[in-house]
Amino acid sequence: MSGKAGDAADRALDDALALANDPRAEADRSRPPATDPLVVALGLGDAQPAPARPSRPAGSRPRPHTPPPPAPLDPVAVALLHGAEESADTGPRPPARRGEADRGGNGPADRGAGPAAAPPAERRTSSRTNSRTGGTGRADRVADPEGVATGGRKPPPPAERRRDARTADVTWSEARRIARQAGRRLGARVMPLGEEALGAALAEPLTALTDLPSFDSSAMDGWAVAGSAPWLLEGGLLAGQGSPPPLRDGRAAPIATGAVLPPGAVAVLRSEHGRTEERGDGAWLWVREPRFAPRPGQEVRRRGQECGRGEELLPVGTVVTPAVLGLAAATGYDELTVTARPRVEVLVLGDELLDHGLPRNGRVRDALGPMLPSWLRALGAEVTSVRRLVDDPGALRDAITAGAADLIITTGGTAGGPVDHVHPVLAAIGAKLLVDGVAVRPGHPMLLAELPGSTHTGGRAGSRIAGRAGSPAPGGGPFLIGLPGNPLAAVSGVLTLAAPLLRTLAGRPGPAPYAAALTADVAGHPVDTRLVPVVFDDESAARPLGFAGSAMLRGLAGADGMAVIPPGGARAGQETAVLDTGMLGPAWGSGG
């Protein structure tokens, strides 16, 4: 989907998922309009109460959320929609949790706090000020006039200025929107019909190259019959034998499933519904019981029954699955025109990381290097490399500037610690920060930047470019997403920034949002969104899981999705949006 309609649909999706995490206009604080996407997503309109949740079979996935008829607006919902915004807009930001602000390792470190426990007091290592410009949500550097706000000192160089500036994190849904709108769909590739195309999105509609079926054929093994019983048997018809001679009235011919129906045949009698009898003048076919007498057209697949030539079968943006490959082959395709997969390089930063064995000597295992590649592939990416880097700004700069990817993802080094080099390196190479901190827990020190130099063409071996060779690739960028080093915080960054950006670059549609009622109270951050792992019960309710600290993966490993908890928390029984993480899907899944 593209253009104004596609952008409106994407905005509606992000607004529905926001669940009151964006500040609203002062005039709207008392009561959101009935058309507000948040109200629609939660079913909080002006008419009937929501119906009871239907049960579902154990182990099945929840259905996309269909809002019930509007109901009177619940005061609790109003409070959750708007209650925390005054403190978010006017009060000081709470201090940051050390486990997230410090880069730490990306292996589990902290223990405990289940989903209902409020996050501890937090201390930020870098202070910020609200300086969003141009509606892009970008936090620009604040340069104080020389000798004014710096007590006579010259302003610090760009690499150090972030530690002295005060910038407010953008809201969670705003960050997702910025990421989604930052790029453009990549160029088209013509790929052979096969596994290589799995997971790519159609760049052109899939239209039928022929009628399907392309001829009248038998749907069952049995006899093609002309006229009424009994029938004199003649010949025999097998699949793939070409066009048979006409069948005269009162005659029948044995026929196999898929064989061409002879001219004159009016129906097919199933083999179990007929019996044959040898007589002096030949073999005769009878119906076993009158109720089995074939009706005209019975057990016949008529030409064009599934589709006619030129009919659109699938729209642009459809993800190529095994079923899509089968449909394309059935209608005559040998290759597909798809959007190129975004090429992604992963840079895992940290001297403290180990790539094998037990954690030891103050060092921890790298959890993100093994986890991210397959996850990114499920989001439509082609992961070209995963590299470990030491904490050295020169090595990081070389890796970023030498890359040929559409997106570089770094892990760790996004806060303000002594070895957090991502911000200084981005400033040094002239990168444009689009998102610099997000009001979400865990994962608030994430960032999105556009790197200088977008001249790569993105060619692939085994495919050909649909367009003029050598022209700059669509897509914008290249981009860099800086994920926090703690594992669950990094996952938050994948769902917040990587998933929307990759969907845009890969030409994929956004997943349908769905909602579920919480089975327990979940404490919220005072002003930030929380993402909490949940598992669905047999009635599609979401049970919050423990071990949801920023450095933990235990809760996520057993999760069906991530619940979006608004500032101030959510109550048991309250419906909240749930993000599909995409972890459970194969390489052609979507997620996020």
TrEMBL record:
SMART domains per the UniProt record, alphabetical: MoCF_biosynth (SM00852)
Xref: Pfam families:
MoCF_biosynth, MoeA_C, MoeA_N
Catalysed reactions listed for this entry: adenylyl-molybdopterin + molybdate = Mo-molybdopterin + AMP + H(+)
Where is the segment annotated Disordered? 15-170, 450-469
* Superkingdom classification of source: Bacteria
- InterPro entries from the entry? MoaB/Mog-like_dom_sf, MoaB/Mog_dom, MoeA-like, MoeA_C_domain_IV, MoeA_C_domain_IV_sf, MoeA_linker/N, MoeA_linker/N_sf
Query: Keywords on this record?
Result: Magnesium, Metal-binding, Molybdenum, Molybdenum cofactor biosynthesis, Transferase
Sequence ranges of Low complexity compositional bias: 47-61, 108-120
Metabolic or biological pathway, per its Swiss-Prot or TrEMBL entry: Cofactor biosynthesis; molybdopterin biosynthesis
Q: What name does this protein carry?
A: Molybdopterin molybdenumtransferase
Q: What is the lineage of its organism?
A: Bacteria, Bacillati, Actinomycetota, Actinomycetes, Kitasatosporales
